[in-house]
Amino acid sequence: MATEYDLVILGGGTGGYVAAIRASQLNMKVAIVEKSELGGTCLHRGCIPSKALLRSAEVYQQTKKAEIFGVEVNDPTLNFAKVQQRKNAIIEQLHKGVQGLMKKGKIDVYQGFGRILGPSIFSPMPGTISVEYENGNENDMLLPKNVLIATGSQPNTLPGLDFDGEYIISSNEALEMEELPNSMLIVGGGVIGIEWASMLNDFGVDVTVLEYQKQILPTEDKDVAKEMKKQLKKRGVNIVTGADVQADTLEKDNGVAIEAMVGDKKERFETDKLLVSVGRKANIQNIGLENTDIQISNHTIDTNEFYQTKESHIYAIGDVIGGMQLAHVASHEGITAVEHMAGDYTQKIDYKSISSCIYASPEAASVGLTEVQAKDEGYELVIGKFPFKAVGKALVYGETDGFVKIITDKKTQDLLGVHMIGPQVTDMISEAGLAKVLDATAWEISQTIHPHPSLSEVIGEAALAVDGIQIHG
Ligand code: NAD
């Protein structure tokens, strides 16, 4: 017997569970099949735990620097076990919250591995879901009108650098470390690499980052990447760009040693642990795609702009379709997909209006095109840039490094991109996101009167700087 549903979602991560809630609001009978825990990577192995650790690292550093604010503290010490306990408590609380939301939405959750079947006795179309259980319980069969694949991604590694959980680790294992190592070599200076470099440095770990490209954070605006590198180096993080890691030189014995070609020079690096953060790969293995006509390119599932695969009743969203591998992107793709399958009015997502954030210290955030991308697209640019050090609240806050950079089209005055690095920019970027959604110009941003004193004044000033009429610089 198969249980009938309007929608079955494979994967209960941020993309999957948000889609399930939207489907339930639209009166669909919906089920999630989740092999591990509701909340997925973001809640258990990604955004939330890493941000909890980053916050502890920040508090530790701020306490050490408290004297600057006239607060005298005797020799603060770090209790890493408590740092981990706090992180785990946050995850647990949010996990319970997601479970509660599933109950509220009357969403059935099957804790097992979901596989898409081809045409069968249940249906002439592919899309019946077989749920397999680890404990050997008999499979459940689910017969949905629509399927949503939201199975996420997992850390990628390099050939010869297989994760062993002890010396060579991914961000998954790094989050579970019971003790801090003395030193960490990070291969890959993208978002994960830089967040971990910043956090571990704040915790007192000796950190080296090896980045293959000439620029860390290669997808960020070059000025932001340059400022991030400058700030991290000032704090003692060793950053080596243009580093070609030679996996065949790996030695593991009470620590790790490995060589990299840096230009034409060979350099040897010795470390307690090596964290590989060179991207994530889509979880498309064993979910039954071979039983369907679903197309795959570059190891990700092909979809149209409403996230339909070649099998129009099977949708896919989030990291499995590639693009911006971000939790908030996955959840909005999920909402769009569900509204589309329900025949509800829905809008295509404009990826150039989506903010992305780096929660290092300093924080960085952006929306839209980088300067290089905008030039490559043929725009003639007018750029306004304003530093935090000219804003009173930044001085009060005690963090004056960084800037906001606004990139506009000379011809139309359209906002092309906004890039920020400095205090609290991961919260402030939403103003730029809203401006993009509302198709605002820099002038309109400058006419939005920013409260004084506030860090957000830097956005108003950067917008004025587009016309060369900034007040405080
Ligand atoms: P990434 O793509 O951001 O960065 C990978 C980095 O590794 C790149 O800089 C790349 O040039 C480098 N690299 C590749 N091969 C290399 C090699 N052989 N040697 C040295 N460097 C090499 O990937 P990530 O940092 O692993 O993150 C994975 C995904 O998760 C990304 O899409 C990221 O946006 C997302 N994520 C987002 C956040 C956030 O929103 N704050 C946090 C963590 C992860």
Automatic annotation (TrEMBL):
Enzyme Commission (EC) number? 1.8.1.4
FAD/NAD(P)-binding domain residues: 5-334
- Extra info from the record? The active site is a redox-active disulfide bond.
Query: Which UniProt keywords are listed?
Result: Cytoplasm, Disulfide bond, FAD, Flavoprotein, NAD, Oxidoreductase, Redox-active center
Required co-factors: FAD
Q: How is the cofactor bound?
A: Binds 1 FAD per subunit.
Mind telling me which Pfam families this protein's record contains? Pyr_redox_2, Pyr_redox_dim
Q: Where is the Pyridine nucleotide-disulphide oxidoreductase dimerisation domain?
A: 354-463
Classification via InterPro entries? Class-I_Pyr_Nuc-Dis_Oxidored, FAD/NAD-bd_sf, FAD/NAD-binding_dom, FAD/NAD-linked_Rdtase_dimer_sf, Lipoamide_DH, Pyr_nuc-diS_OxRdtase, Pyr_nucl-diS_OxRdtase_dimer, Pyr_OxRdtase_I_AS
Return one GO MF term: dihydrolipoyl dehydrogenase (NADH) activity
The record's section on SUPFAM superfamilies has: FAD/NAD(P)-binding domain, FAD/NAD-linked reductases, dimerisation (C-terminal) domain
Q: Which residues cross the membrane?
A: none
Family per record:
Belongs to the class-I pyridine nucleotide-disulfide oxidoreductase family.
Q: Give me the reactions it catalyses.
A: N(6)-[(R)-dihydrolipoyl]-L-lysyl-[protein] + NAD(+) = N(6)-[(R)-lipoyl]-L-lysyl-[protein] + NADH + H(+)
Main location group: cytoplasm
Where in the cell? Cytoplasm
What is the protein's given name?
Dihydrolipoyl dehydrogenase
Q: Which domain of life is it from?
A: Bacteria
- PANTHER family found in the cross-reference section: DIHYDROLIPOYL DEHYDROGENASE, DISULFIDE OXIDOREDUCTASE
